[in-house]
Design brief:
Layout (H helix, E strand, L loop, with lengths): L4 H8 L8 E4 L10 H12 L4 H15 L5 H11 L5 H16 L5 H12 L3 E5 L4 H11 L3 E3 L3 E4 L2 E6 L7 H14 L7 E4 L5 H6 L2 E4 L4 H10 L14 H20 L1 H7 L2 H20 L1 E6 L11 E4 L6 H9 L3 E6 L8 H7 L3 E3 L4 H18 L2 E4 L17 H9 L3 E6 L16 E7 L13 H17 L6
Parallel strand pairs: 1-2, 1-6, 2-3, 6-7, 8-14, 9-12, 9-13, 10-11, 10-12
Antiparallel strand pairs: 4-5, 13-14
Length: 479
């Protein structure tokens, strides 16, 4: 069962079809807090703002927050601060700000709502008073095609310092929704709008299904009076002592577990038994410290055929812990060579039998993987690998590389796909902290590699990529 079943229950029962829209505000609704502060910090860091402009902008934001200034004045000041900047440069900055700061502020619960609407085939859009530079990278990351925002005027690739047209604020959001409805033939009377603020009251009143998310007290009062259902999600973004301690303790438990395996090695003479003990200990201790719980379906497939090559879609750095909790014993993994440079952790990983490869040197990487075939055949040791080669922090896997499939084919063992659905909720993109939570994991049936050849390998890999896409796209709450 998905960890967000209750949150998405209404949508899972709703009518399907693109005529129904799911419209989302951005700041405070999709992300915690306000993206403008991240952009302001970056402009200050880059020296794009004079001291007087910094003071004026902060004062304007404060006045608007207190209801003492209108939004148009704030946006006009923002546009003036960007005069003379190249739009292409700003687009690059926007991507970096999203990667570094905004991605980790996405509410996982809101993402679950967005995905639930997408599974229903609804037309999902972001309608925000912010600019496309704030909203665009997040929309792309979440797979949202349609956005309507407030714009800045650009001529010959340079910001002029003027607004680009009517603001997407207040009644402007209703106009944006009506424009989208006309273009996409939407039924707004049966559509949804999610917002946290009374600034959006016009569209909340216009839409058929107003859905306040993380509402201000004023909007909460209005919602209660009008019978609008309200959901509030816990804000998790930002550094905190407990989260930092959890992260460090999780990594250090790998070192402690490796050391705890040394007496087992000494007593039994078996390095593999020591590794098995250390891996299981790490899985249990680190899982408890991180607050990680797994909701596993198809667990029997982990054990029905061993040895095997287990593959997983790589969403976050906590995937290592997830795989350890799943596989427990008699397996090894593959990691990047940079891990060797990590104090204590690198040594612990090597002691655990993890093969560390230089991904920038394909010849050395292939040479490092060759002994894994012998380990599978001679020692009955399974291998776990991420065929994407790097983290995606997304439910859309990158194209698979062929290393894992070559190993399985040469060793004559099955491929067992591990589908990780929401690890980024526990270890978000751009964040160094771990957050307690439940990760949904699906183990697919072993795939026999007998009959695979170098000539038909591309076709076999494409079939497995399709299995992942189907598993990650489907509704986890369907009967």
């Amino acid at each position: 069962m998905s960890p967000y079943t209750e949150i998405t229950a209404e949508i899972n029962k709703a009518a399907a079809g693109p005529q129904i829209a799911a419209l989302f505000d951005f700041d405070g609704t999709i992300i915690a807090g306000y993206s403008v502060f991240s952009f302001l910090r970056e402009q200050v860091r880059r020296g794009d703002l004079a001291p007087s402009e910094i003071v004026a902008t902060v004062e304007a934001i404060g006045r608007f927050g207190l209801g003492r200034a209108d939004f148009a004045a704030l946006m006009s000041l923002s546009a003036q601060s960007m005069r003379g900047l190249k739009e292409d440069d700003y687009l690059d900055v926007a991507e970096k700000i999203f990667e570094r700061d905004l991605a980790k502020k996405i509410y996982p619960e809101t993402r679950a709502l967005i995905e639930a609407h997408m599974r229903k085939g609804h037309t999902v859009a972001i309608i925000s008073s912010a600019t496309p530079y704030q909203v665009g990278p997040c929309a792309k990351y979440l797979g949202i095609e349609h956005i309507a925002c407030s714009t800045m005027e650009v001529k010959d690739g340079i910001f002029t310092g003027e607004l680009g047209g009517p603001l997407c604020f207040g009644v402007g959001k209703v106009d944006a929704a009506l424009d989208l409805a006309k273009t996409k033939d939407l039924d707004l009377a049966n559509s949804y709008f999610y917002s946290d603020s009374t600034d959006d009251i016009e569209l909340l009143e216009y839409i058929g299904n107003p859905r306040p998310l993380n509402p201000s007290q004023k909007l909460r009062d209005i919602a209660e009076a009008r019978g609008w259902p309200v959901q509030t999600f816990k804000r998790r973004a930002g550094s905190n002592a407990l989260g930092f301690t959890r992260n460090v303790a999780t990594k250090l438990s790998l070192v402690g577990s490796a050391l705890a395996g040394l007496p087992i090695w000494a007593l039994t003479g078996s390095r593999q038994e020591a590794r098995n003990f250390a891996t299981s200990l790490f899985a249990d201790v680190a899982g408890a410290v991180a607050g990680l719980k797994l909701d596993i379906s198809g667990e029997k497939h982990l054990w029905v055929e061993r040895p095997a090559v287990f593959i997983f879609n790589h969403q976050s750095d906590i995937d290592v812990l997830i795989c350890s909790k799943l596989l427990r014993r008699n397996f090894t993994g593959v990691g990047k060579a940079e891990i060797k440079q990590m104090p204590l952790v690198g040594a612990a990983m090597e002691m655990a039998g993890v093969v560390l490869i230089d991904r920038t040197n394909s010849k050395s990487a292939i040479a490092a993987l060759e002994p894994l075939v012998d380990r599978i055949k001679q020692d009955q040791i399974s291998v776990v690998m991420a065929p994407e080669g790097t983290r995606t922090h997304s439910k859309k896997p990158k194209p698979f590389k062929k290393g894992a499939f070559h190993i399985a084919m040469q060793a004559g063992v099955p491929i067992v796909p591990i589908v990780i659905h929401n690890a980024m909720d526990v270890s978000p993109k751009g964040d160094s902290l771990y957050y307690p939570g439940t990760v949904e994991v699906e183990i697919l049936a072993p795939i026999n590699t007998n009959g695979w050849t170098v000539e038909n390998l591309d076709k076999q890999v494409a079939k497995i990529e399709a299995l992942y896409k189907k598993a990650l796209d489907k509704s986890t709450t369907a009967a």
